[in-house]
Amino acid sequence: MATKKISNLSFEATIEELEVIVNQLEQGDLPLDKALSQFERGIGLARSGQDKLQGAQQKVDILMNNNNESSLSAFNQGAQD
Prior knowledge:
Mean pLDDT: 87
Distance between the termini: 49 Å
Strand content: under 5%
Order of helices and strands: HH
Number of strands: 0
């Protein structure tokens, strides 16, 4: 399988590939050169994922600041009435 450029991956694909790399490295069965190569790609994937999250947060901040008429309320995940 051809390795895609990190910048072309979606956030979800970035996380999925990062999970595969972490699992491979945790198993410890890779030759040193392959392990280093996978570690390097994993670092790139982690940085890319963080950049994508920061970009999404900035977009949300901009949208919320542009709509002064809306108000925010607390989000209670899993709250049952």
